[in-house]
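The aim of this short unit is practical: by the end, you should be able to scan a pair of folded records and say something sensible about each. We start with the first protein, listed as its amino acid sequence and then its structure tokens.
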Amino acid sequence: MNIEPDRLTKKERHELILSEVRRSASIRISKLARRIGVAGETIRRDLIELGEAGLINRTYGGATISLVTSEPVIAERGLTMVEERARVGRGAAGLIERGRVLMIDGGSTTYEVARSLSQLGRDLTIITNSIGVASVAGANPGFRVILCPGTYDSREAAVLGEDTVEFVRRYNADIAIIGASALNAEGPSDMISGAAAVKRAMMGRSLSTMLVVTNDKFGRSGLERVCALSQISDVVTDSEPAAALRAAIDEAGGELHVFAE
């Protein structure tokens, strides 16, 4: 049974399209047009917009879900996007004021933020679950570094689990600095559920949240969504995202900081 097209806004059409694609994994334009009761050309325009926002992969005559199914371990990620992550790290560090309390989660890009911060003469308190972040931040004598307890995960060189989350909830911070496996119009996501839980715990104890990501994360979906875009105060990256994702960030109220070459 078709849905009455006059009763559907573009947003409602997009939500219905996403629901159909998720249910079927892939779907044809002709089927979507019959289901929603609009012209195929309307569906094609909708798919273009959803594709630019990173919510689907467009295919010939249809669409599939855009999903990240695996991610290299942190040591391997550290060998790619080197200059891009360094720019993000320097840019994000430059936004941090003296005397702040920061929560920084594990990841190759958040490590670069910590490395850049450690080179600046600022008194900071850093609470982290990352061995690498703690090590590089601890090299600065002006920093107070608090390392979370938990179960060590060699993939991320970080501690995760209930003990980590409970420990984070004991503290208050000015800014949570988090990374992500993927970023689209629905928000950042991560491939490791334990890491996503720590990110959410840090966000819950911080006045604001800074997301640091390189452009290879744009338009993708990870296993578990961390939060909505509206919960992110600042997005720091190395390249301008596609128009649809940029619009979603602006609409959510976040501030985009692009540190390009």
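Turning to the second protein, read its sequence before its tokens, just as you did above.
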Amino acid sequence: MKRPTIHDVAAAAGVSRGTVSRLLNGDKYVSPAARVAIERAISETGYVVNRAARSLVTQRTGTVAMVMSEPHAKFFEDPNYSTLTRVAVRKLAERDMSLVMMLAGDEGDRERVVRYVRGGHADGVLLVSTHAGDPLVDALAAGPPAVSCGAVIGRETVIPYAATDERLGARQMTEYLVGQGRRRIAMITGPMDTPGGIQRLEGFADVLGRKASRKLIAHGDWTQASGERAMTELLERSPDIDAVFVASDLMAAGALAALRAAGRSVPGDVAVGGFDDSSVAVSTHPPLTTIRQPLAEVAQETVRLLLALIDGAEHVESVILPTELVIRESA
């Protein structure tokens, strides 16, 4: 069966080929009646837009690259990334655009990302989980518009972003643990070259002041295994810990495993608080008291900012959304 062409659509709609072409390329100067007729003809003929041909006219690819600066294993382990990806795909689909997921966890991956983006294959870039000093950020500077999910350290005023108020969330959790009568409160941070790692530690210290001693702070890398290692380290250093704020739910799941192995009850001996309110938080035993960050809204705002830049906006304002304490059984 012959594939329908733009000529078939024009004939079925009773308009010129040029009018169909203008509509398909986003021209606003097409009458409402012609628009309705063309859309009906497209549906009736089964015509599918040739994206390659359209891109020659519009200089657009209809594609956005989501670039995550983490190893492959982290993408599949952490449910936060699937939330961001799912929402971004849905929001872009509303504009008939596609998302290409690219992982940049090592030098080879970064080189492939740079070749792809600089080669003109994407209209914009969504940056996810960038680290301070990441060479990829500089390498992409000369390319299409970029927006980050979370601030890019050192580039907060240069690269627009959407994020949660991570420092506020950390304060909310620490104040809650203090209010529960906990006196020896430890923390497991995220990587200290990420905004989440830095700002959640800052919020913890805002509340505890000098009580937030180095002895009570251990560092993880957002993975469950790192949370387990860090919790074991904290128990060896300070056996009298009665609470721990863990900077992600996934690491908190690891901390719970370490506490079980050490014979500590939760929350009886040690209260555990997480951060994210991801699917992990309701699957642990006991379920996690945690900080809810509105990741779906963050993803929507990130896409909105990027589309505005792609459409020609010279400047967009970054967006910071509030967090919320969610109380369950772990604290």
